[in-house]
Amino acid sequence: MLFLLVVPLIGLSSRSTLADLWQALWSHELHQAVIVTANTSIIALGCVIVGGTPLAVWLTRNPQSRWRTFLVDLPAVLPPAVAGLALLTIFGRTGWLGPTLSTVGWNIPFTPLAVILAQVFVAAPLYIRSASAALQGVDHDVINAALVDGASRYELWRFVIVPLAMPGLQAGAAMALARALGEFGATAIFAGSMPGQTRTLALAIYINADYDSATAIAMSLILLLSAMVLLLVVRRVDASTR
Amino acid sequence: MQRRRMFRWGGSALGMAVLSACGQSRISAATGFSLAVAASLNDVMRALDAAFIQPKPRPAAVLQAAGSGALAQQIVDGARFDLFAAADRTAMEKIIAAKIVSAADVVVIAHADVVVVAHSDSDVVQLSDLATPGTRVVLADSTVPAGRYAQTALTNLTAIYGADFATNVNQNVVSLETNVRAVLQKVQSGEADVGLVYTADIAKLPDNIVRSLVIPEGYGVRAEYVATVLPNAHGDTPAFMEFMRGDGATTIWQSYGFRA
Hints:
- The complex is a heterodimer.
- Chain A is mainly alpha-helical.
- Chain A is built from twelve helices and no strands.
- In chain B, 44% of the residues are buried.
- The N terminus of chain B is likely disordered.
- Chains A and B meet through helix 11 of A and helix 3 and strand 6 of B.
């Protein structure tokens, strides 16, 4: 099993010659894909944190409520293609909100916004789950002590709860970013594949894999590297909480 | 402890069974074909396979329908099929270069015309509308045959609609899809206004969803579908190839929008 997990990753880096890879690293196509991916997934991460944290707090309020967790987790385990179709049925031109949105000039499919929506949809549960676990893990005695000492609601969150939950929040954010960076299925269906607009690294790899392998491999290595960095962030955060 | 060990053995035995099943998935006699076909050939191949019952009945073929280039790459990477049918020769050249088949083994099986397909709710009613700013055009990526044919067609049409036509249309492109079926899906769903596909892709579609705009004679592009029997193929594959190219298959090809 370990073999199956590790060897393809090593194989990836040995498939093309270094010279080819080096050249591919400087191709316009790769740069476009990197820029699209970086922009969309960082904005997506921002949305996930801004929108996901209150949701995580809401989940923490009533940890017994299983259906809340269920609803929040659902997008994470949904096959990405299903997520893409689901987004189309809402935001598509003929979807529930599509016609309304297009009257105010918002046509979401085929735009970077569609990529971001797809990423938020699949990545948010990872953050929310981790964040709500972290918030739940904050010791009630500490919270009570702060309240006894006269901390305001804002101070309680700003100086007590958030700092204590920070490792979990960071780990959740890293996992969500990793998921957003690699998003493929929902993006392909909902956002299309336009170089410089909606063609993320994952989509560009898919298009190039059957055509120009060095480019695809160079792109794969970039994604692999960023996944490793994010994993290290999670590990480091994990270790610091022990 | 004892139970745990049993579980572990059970697990690996299951693993072995799965592995050996994978290894033997191509036993001769009563198995169906395994066909790697260009996305646009999906439906017609299913029909051809169903019509071909000689020399003896067999289960329905297993079809892998995708972009021709992706399939060629899979074959070069060791995927095993009985037959590979591509939408142009470029994809074939990849497996010829890899010495899996020789150029002489590749034969033409059918033709299809490139056609412009518009969603029935869209404002696109004639070819010149493709260049109207704001029209959402979807094409196949030029890494797949449908994308290359589409670009040729646009270039040809500059002779009628002016030198800027191809450029203007390309500026309206909102997505370059990985295969021709994905192009059609985007138009069918109404997300895109118009796309370039093959006549074969829309032959069986109801008229109320999309309308097709025919490219005038002399400016169109005719896609050439080529196929080859792959090494170690099912024993009946050459006969199936004969059947596909023979008179008996002509009406099937035509009913799916191809020229046999």
